[in-house]
Amino acid sequence: MIIRPATPADAPAMADLLNRIIAIGGTTAHQHPKPAERVLVDYIDGPGTLTCMVAELDGRVVGFQSVGRNPQLSAQTGDIGTFVEPGLQAKGTGAQLFAATRAAARAAGLRELNATIRADNVPGLAYYGRIGFVDHAHDPDWALNDGRVVGRVSRRFVL
């Protein structure tokens, strides 16, 4: 597996991966598909993006992890999001992505990372816990667009 910085050329493959994860449901707060143009701005080279790494296996993007600015957080805190190919989760892809992301976040001058995870996303909560994120906030009333209340957990990692 190759872990490398994302490029604009990765946007279509990243959108395809993200949209498959959204369609399955349950492991992302995203509820609507994103076109490649939106993935480019949101995760690769938009004004709020600090770093984005992709995991590539046999020439195919199988995961990505992005850190961006969140105006609700301190300037030294980045918001992290991780997306891994279903079937490859919990097999080391996320850990490899995080090693590269952590270094890039430090190089960008960040002091901590925030991950906000659906409270019903058991694999996501396990992943962020496994790599050292700790709970710092809970929003038990957070709801999906269809009204289902699933809650959210915010976890922090000190760089």
From TrEMBL:
GO molecular function: acyltransferase activity, transferring groups other than amino-acyl groups
Keywords, ordered alphabetically: Acyltransferase, Transferase
A Pfam entry, by short name: Acetyltransf_1
SUPFAM superfamilies: Acyl-CoA N-acyltransferases (Nat)
Residues spanning the membrane: none
InterPro entries referenced in this protein's UniProt entry, alphabetically: Acyl_CoA_acyltransferase, Bact_Acetyltransf, GNAT_dom
Domain N-acetyltransferase intervals: 1-156
Record-linked PROSITE patterns: GNAT (PS51186)
Protein name stated in the entry: GNAT family N-acetyltransferase
Lineage: Bacteria, Pseudomonadati, Pseudomonadota, Alphaproteobacteria, Rhodobacterales
